[in-house]
Amino acid sequence: MALRWPPDGLDYLPPLYVFDPDAGLIHRFDGRDRQAGDIPLEWMQEAEFVAAEDDAYWGEVVDRSYFRIPWLGPCQLAELLPPPAELAAPPRGLLFLQFVSPRCRDCARLSRAIQRTLARHPQRPMRWVQVETDQAVGGR
After folding, report:
1. pTM as predicted
2. Residue 127 β-bridge partners
3. 77 with 133: CB under 8 angstroms?
4. Under 8 Å CB-to-CB from 85, ≥6 apart: which residues?
5. Are 16 and 96 in contact (CB under 8 A)?
6. Residues 82, 4: contact at Cβ < 8 Å?
7. What DSSP line would sit under 33-77, residue for residue?
């Protein structure tokens, strides 16, 4: 899918956001129980996903709690994508929303990491949406 229009004020696009069935963002520090949850989360430990998350979020400490805040939130992402922009994963699954660009150094490696995750969980419903853009992807 093609990017609808470039986001204002960003010199680059984050390479990846991952959503749950409620259209909630998933990241390493969101407090989900990796053992008890329905959604497989071991993929977050792979180097490609760690680097992608570092490009997609910034951190803030408030009252001794650490929060990860997306550079682009769900509302901004929905505005960038052609309608209807569906950011919810399938039930009990994941949605990988990846931005790819010819100027992206790490897009192919990240794509291979997503493919490995899909292959490891063939029983799990997952969607992978790639958004093509000529804007720079990733902040490194």
Report:
1. 0.88
2. 95
3. no
4. 77, 78, 79
5. yes
6. yes
7. -TTTSSS--GGGGSHHHHHHHHHHEEEEEETTEEEEEESS-HHHH
